[in-house]
Amino acid sequence: MGHTLSSYPSKNDFTVHSFLLKIFLNDSTYRPCPQPFHFATSSPQRLPKFDLKFSETCIFSINSTEAIKLTINRDNKTSFGIKVLETGNFPDPYAKDKEGQLAKVEGWYSPFQSFPLTVTSRSKSVSVIISSSDIDHSIIPYAIEFVAVKPCKCFPSNLIVSRDQPLNLLSQGFPSGYCGNLNCFTEISLENSLNTRDEESLQIQFNTFQTDFNLEPLSLQIPFGEEKVDSPKIFVNFTTKAVQDDTGFNLTIKRIKRNKECLCHGTNSNFKILNEKNDSVQYTFDGEKCPFMECYWEIQPPKDSKIYHYIIIKLNLSHADDGDFVEECDTNFIEGSRGCSKYASKNIGEILKFLVKNEILVNDVSRFVLKRDAFVRVWYHRESGEMINNPNIPRQFNLAYEWREEPHPLLPKKRFNVI
Hints:
Blueprint: E1 2-7, E2 19-24, E3 37-39, E4 45-46, E5 57-63, E6 67-74, E7 80-86, E8 101-105, E9 117-120, E10 125-132, E11 142-149, E12 158-161, E13 167-170, E14 183-190, E15 199-210, E16 218-221, E17 233-239, E18 248-258, E19 271-274, E20 278-285, E21 292-299, E22 310-318, E23 324-330, E24 340-344, E25 353-361, E26 376-383, E27 395-404
Parallel strand pairs: 3-5, 12-14, 19-21
Antiparallel strand pairs: 1-2, 4-11, 5-10, 6-9, 6-11, 7-8, 7-10, 13-18, 14-17, 15-18, 16-17, 20-27, 21-26, 22-25, 22-27, 23-24, 23-26
Protein name: CUB domain-containing protein
């Protein structure tokens, strides 16, 4: 006769790891689980081997001052199961989610499961659950080795992009998730320029991007001003606060040539500040010569003005291709988010011309907590495919805006008593 008491740590309790308490009376065949707690160091160690009866389970907790790497080997075809989880994300035993699960070995032998199986944690503690699915418990089918490692190193502080070979930049731990408490910074540059008349730039392609919204940012800074296009640089800063199950990011960075006719503002910089009360931008370019473009405008309120209540922006993009879009964003952050409007040519079907009149509230205090020095950013992105619609017709991008001081007509007048 026996009694079993099991305890599992909750998702929010990081002090309890795991234990399995069994009380057996008059059962001479029972063998208790081995010592459950282990500490990983730089020297490889092994979890103890032991006999498990059919459908029995034992749990081990491995802690370390670093991350933990486990190597799981199968010694024979006996059926058994192993789960490896981040201890801090140990799931509720009755829940269906698999949050924090790093690896799972199915109970039955399969020739398609490759061994040894290597698992690396993103935190300093893992839990290993071992269960038996075989009647013959005298055979021990597995061997598990563990060692402390440092998988959460930041990428190098300087990376060079070759002219012939793109650079692949992955977040730490990708694709299983990324590590906590990181602040990684790197400078990405193109290798020394050759004797060429081509304007060169670095292009970033986002293959995968999934991080915790507003908590785990990836900041990309492209230097403007005096930086030359033939020796471009990109500064990357990735900051994390906690272990996450999000995939992370996978970026490809490569060299591209830029035609001088495709420069956004007539200079090597693709960024321009507009700070008049009203202004306009007219830009015409060749669709075939300019398959890829990034143009940015920052519309600031005039410095000598009073508080402006809202801004009217008019956009006119004619003969747009499938990969063209315009995005407007104000800088008044509302609980970590911002107000953005995106206009993509692929959403308007066969129409090759669209006109947008958009009004962005700048000081609507009754709705948002806004900053007085708020401004608006406009981003024009062009990434056309091999087939360009009407290649002989020039593309046109027109932007016009006007700051207005009078109350916005869509808001009740009483709301402006606060402004």
